[in-house]
Please model this.
Amino acid sequence: MTTLFKDSLSVINVGLAGFAEDIAAAGGACVALEWQPPAQGDRDAAWALATIFNHSQVEEANALAFGRFASAQPVLVDVAPARDAIPGMAGGRRIILHAGPPIAWPKMCGPMQGAILGAAVLEGWASSMEAAARLVETGSIELEPCHHHGTVGPMAGIVSPSMPLWVVENKAHGNRAYSNFNEGLGKVLRFGANGAEVIDRLRWIASDLAPALRATLARTGGIELMPLMAQALNMGDEVHNRNAAATSLFFKRIAPAMFETNVARDAAAKALAFIAGNDHFFLNLSMAACKAMLDSAADVPGSSMVVAMARNGVNFGIRLAGTGTQWFEAPANPIDGLYFPGYSLADAAPDLGDSAITETAGVGGFAMAAAPAIVKFVGGTSTDAMHHSLRMRAITLGTLASFTLPSLDFAAAAAGIDARKVVDSGILPVINSGIAHRQAGVGQIGAGVTYAPMACFAAAVKTLARQIGASAT
Amino acid sequence: MTTLFKDSLSVINVGLAGFAEDIAAAGGACVALEWQPPAQGDRDAAWALATIFNHSQVEEANALAFGRFASAQPVLVDVAPARDAIPGMAGGRRIILHAGPPIAWPKMCGPMQGAILGAAVLEGWASSMEAAARLVETGSIELEPCHHHGTVGPMAGIVSPSMPLWVVENKAHGNRAYSNFNEGLGKVLRFGANGAEVIDRLRWIASDLAPALRATLARTGGIELMPLMAQALNMGDEVHNRNAAATSLFFKRIAPAMFETNVARDAAAKALAFIAGNDHFFLNLSMAACKAMLDSAADVPGSSMVVAMARNGVNFGIRLAGTGTQWFEAPANPIDGLYFPGYSLADAAPDLGDSAITETAGVGGFAMAAAPAIVKFVGGTSTDAMHHSLRMRAITLGTLASFTLPSLDFAAAAAGIDARKVVDSGILPVINSGIAHRQAGVGQIGAGVTYAPMACFAAAVKTLARQIGASAT
Model:
């Protein structure tokens, strides 16, 4: 100690920058290291984390879960009404699925409530929005998360029994996942709009578009979705908020085959024009593919791999492979983004929708480096986009060899979020997202970048550590 | 002089690195500046250059030429047989157009000769390749460059009277440009293949594909090509050797409309499947659009702007806006690239085709930064691709605001090559190119990057300087 202060010192300051500033002010040399304690200071989470870091049971479980995820082969195999595709929606049950973790009707955000009322009218359960509201308030319509039925829906994520769904089968594992059809932009149900124009479009999707696509799919046979997504990642998409290339590639696969069906020419022309006119059309296919990939990794005891991230417009929820069907929730973060003229953060509903299933699978915000043009939609620069993709490598279990990022010299996309690494590093999963107006019916008012809340991952790690501690005793 | 050597010296060495090494070996400090004399040491060209650098007549002419080019609006307006579209091919004339500057039959490379013989059989002028060869050798078939008829064709660039052409009109200037149809990859006429499979495909293109597209175009009305190309540049294409996005976007425009025509369902399905199966399909549309843009800048006396670069498989030729129809030629450079398995540089025909019209218009190699995935096809890294685009800024007159490069944070593409800047800087226009086997019929054996030869630009600058000197006296 007597010698320590005789020599000139080279000091590294970890954490709070104030100490470093004091040393510098006193004429000393000091390097300030930006550091935060794990779990943003949640002591219990940090302790739980320490018990399961480099834990052989977790490592083995993660290897198994990630292996199943990385070897998935999602194939679009059919189009079918929800009541036919999903067992829990059959038999005339009055049920409506919504995005995110479970939430009771009174707590739902405006767009989700608006969309549920629209679906009730679409189904013929009520003849007006007021009548629909009474049905929901009296519990005559059941409300459950999409995720509880192998399904994912963007924004409000509403699925009612008559709605046609994409049916995606993971050929490597045998599981199936579902998503609804993309309605385009403007006044659409998923942003809470429920006027006549919206209901009419949904009726046409069910009566014309879906049968045309079902007949076309019967001609093409199943369509492998990972190769389409991989190509799209090399064509400027991140297959969440930018699906311009993926939609075009999908369109190229189906248009010639539609001529070989019995679909009437005018109906076919209208169906194709609808798809060609909506660069987001592939989003729901991307989501169903990601859900099919991730569901094959679910239910692996001990695994800290995140298999779902979803938002109900109030809370953000995640599920781990190792903790079954349990949701770990926290209030959803606001979205930093580009707002359409006349709107601002004050008008925005909180982060909403099941579409964060794409980030959970390593695309979307995780693959932003593939999509420099996305920054025109969500803000930032193309350099930011690269940095997002690079940073996600610190919190993931591996990479998907078939998903490559051109601007990073074709590095494979980082995927398979490890909840432990999120808690340890403080690096939060990045999510590209559309922004809904907080009131039903207004629609999309922007798009931006947000982050999954730390509290979800801290809670998940605590629960996983308790389970592993219990199984170890 | 006596004081000079008393102080320690900081030396900058310009040019040959040997001097710098000597100084460093003697213990001195020396910065070596990489520099070459203008025109790669061609004294006359350097002198000519000095007389027209910052010359008001040239600057004004370039502003006029570049302005016409940058304001062009190429629109696909029709599909028509060459004999109907091009006045010089009407009236039963036995004429075949080829790529690049003029060249006599005996000097042509293998692929071009093979393609010409195939076209003669296609036209019914001969019943065998031997008979076709006799017709050509005896001068019974006229051979002229595509560029002499407002036309551009990739690789051999063969256009015969019955072949359907894309008709592109520059709505801003009223001029028209033409290109033939893309046959796909494998055994195709443009690489010199001329077997039954090739001729049959060309017959089907004329009898089925072209009429189907003509009828569809009549439904859609003219299709603006610059917006399609601009979108494709934001989707990983450089619209020369990568046209995956542009082809998809074009496909999306026409497929719904084809259902609204009277084209038979099976013919339509086959036509659409052919386009959907060929990611290069849009190339010929890109070329015709670039030709239409550049032709509006031609014939501006005094301008040093390059309005055409083209290769006939032996020589590389350029034309300036200020020197009318004159070609400035030099032997074509070899192509550094990726060869298909079993082939090497020794098998390659020299640089071939009119497709360098894309680089002349600021896309292709000039826009490589937009297309990192192109490096999988032509070699190099995505960083190389960015550097190519940045370097071209040094030899161009301006940028095209509507063509943006995402990985350079949406910088506008450099365009409008100034022959003076090429001669002055020694920076040669970069060109992405397919590589043909030197023998007719083998087809494509690779793709790569090459450069326009300096001698073309040196000769052009000398001629322009002579003309301006003459007009000034």
